[in-house]
Design a protein that fits this description.
Layout: H1 9-18, H2 44-55, E1 59-65, H3 71-84, E2 88-93, H4 106-125, H5 134-144, H6 163-173, H7 175-185, H8 189-210, E3 217-222, H9 236-247, H10 249-252, E4 258-263, H11 267-270, E5 277-280, H12 296-319, H13 329-338, H14 342-355, H15 363-377, H16 382-394, H17 404-416, E6 419-424, E7 426-431, H18 436-454
Parallel strand pairs: 1-4, 1-5, 2-3, 3-4
Antiparallel strand pairs: 6-7
Helix pairs in contact: 2-3, 4-8, 5-6, 6-7, 12-13, 13-14, 14-15, 16-18
């Protein structure tokens, strides 16, 4: 560990800045990693690992959570645990192959699934599959079956060409190519499925022959939950993801492999029957009662997150002396403002580092940082304020009749952390503490304005 004593204030802040990266997934064993979910009853990652071990041959698993809940970090933990148990684990990022704001079709999905597996196996085993890679194989299939696509008119066997890369890039980035491919594969889905499964079996055998001590192969397909509709659009992306999981669930499974997908939390509104999704929840700082009574275990967890980033020595240098109870009041103020959201806490800490002019920092720095975040969360219209008020009042999302627009709003609230998903025996929701009072004030002003307008002139 770095000795912070010799560092001057600027160097110390620079060191802290490097430890407060908001969007950087952590590997298990990283000194900055805090086991947020391992102490919880029904640890979702442990449950998926248990499912894979008990299923032995093949399984299908889903992991979900709000944006910034640490899904990728927890997938890395799952990967390490499975590898320790003798499994060979392959990891791929869906966003390397899919545009997050474009609807997904089953044929696209099957090709991307096999293509990402192919590239990940090459990287994991440090081998070059060359003509045995999936993209090249599939171009050969298209050529041999007489399927011609504009922009892909070169045989895969021609020396000096990389038609596999050309195919992969066009599939992701060229809408006309993607649409033509979908049309020509529409009546050949069974053949596409067979090509995909044959490649997975080829890859599985290749892995186990080179890794004879591995008991099975697990494929982690991350970031699928990032597929979402821009606000104000018709919800085509959400509909396509829903169709994929509702109508093509069997295609998400691959014979003799264990599959783990990260999926969006809003699926619970569109597909309430999808009950086997393992959810990563917010760190709970308060109980689901009328007064929102403090939940001590959650506060302890978030304090440990801060101490890992600052170290015990750094806490006092940065925040000043603790109280007689050993508590740093400015740390607790930031934890309270985070709403128990890990990413928000890291963001707030990082912002104080940018604003600090001297150490230890003052309460004015902390309050300025919190007010800046509050401004970004504050609802901009009455529709949002009313929906958020209902969530705070009922501790539910109140989507009895989910429309594309309301689904987008809830997704937006969860992604931006205006609304939080928590668990206390049962799953429940609440509004971020930074804006609860603002939401009520907006509605009071609106009610007062309506009363004035209703008065006789």
């Amino acid at each position: 560990m770095t000795d912070i004593k010799p560092l001057n204030d600027f160097e110390f802040r620079k060191w802290l800045h490097s430890r407060l990266k908001v969007d950087e997934p952590l590997q298990p064993g990283d000194p900055l990693y805090e086991p947020l979910y391992q102490a919880a009853v029904g640890d979702p990652v442990e449950m998926i690992g248990t499912e894979i071990s008990l299923a032995v041959v093949e399984s299908l698993n889903f992991l979900s959570g709000f944006r910034g809940s640490g899904k990728t970090t927890e997938l890395f933990r799952l990967k390490k645990d499975l590898e320790n148990d003798g499994h060979f684990v392959v990891y791929a990022n869906a966003l390397d192959y899919l545009l997050p704001t474009e609807p997904i079709h089953i044929s696209d999905f099957l090709l991307v699934l096999a293509g990402s597996f192919s590239e990940s196996v090459e990287a994991s085993l440090n081998i070059d599959l060359q003509q045995e890679g999936f993209w090249t194989r599939f171009v050969n299939y298209l050529w041999n079956t007489g399927i011609r696509i504009d922009g892909l008119d070169v045989k895969a066997t021609v020396p000096g060409t990389d038609v596999g890369l050309n195919f992969k890039t066009s599939l992701k980035e060229v809408p006309s190519f993607r649409q033509e491919l979908r049309q020509k594969l529409a009546t050949r889905l069974g053949e596409v499925r067979r090509q995909v499964h044959e490649f997975f079996e080829f890859g599985r055998k290749r892995i186990l022959s080179s890794q004879p001590k591995s008991t099975s192969v697990v494929f982690l397909f991350d970031q699928l939950e990032q597929l979402r509709d821009p606000i104000g659009t018709e919800g085509r992306v959400a509909d396509s993801v829903t169709t994929l999981l509702a109508n093509h669930r069997s295609d998400l499974n691959v014979p003799l492999l264990h599959l783990v997908y990260t999926v969006p939390p809003w699926l619970k509104f569109k597909l309430p029957q999808l009950s086997d999704v393992r959810m990563l929840y917010n760190v709970k700082l308060w109980k689901n009662d009328e007064k929102r009574t403090r939940f001590s275990a959650g506060w302890k967890t978030m304090r440990q997150v801060v101490e890992r980033r600052f170290t015990a020595q750094g806490l006092e240098r940065y925040f000043g002396k603790p109280t007689k109870a050993g508590v740093f009041s400015l740390v607790d103020r930031l934890i309270q403002a985070s709403g128990g959201h890990f990413r928000d806490l890291i963001f707030l800490l990082r912002e104080t580092v940018l604003r600090a002019t001297e150490l230890p920092i003052t309460s004015s720095i902390v309050e300025a940082t919190i007010n800046n975040l509050r401004t970004s969360y504050r609802p901009s219209n009455l529709v949002d304020a009313r929906l958020l008020h209902q969530i705070a009042l009922h501790r539910d999302c109140m989507l009895e009749n989910p429309t594309a627009e309301s689904l987008q709003r809830i997704t937006f609230f969860l992604d931006t952390h205006c609304a939080l998903i928590l668990r206390n025996g049962e799953e429940w929701y609440d509004v971020h503490p930074l804006i609860r009072d603002d939401v009520e004030e907006i509605l009071k002003r609106d009610e007062a304005a309506r009363s004035r307008d209703a008065e006789p002139k």
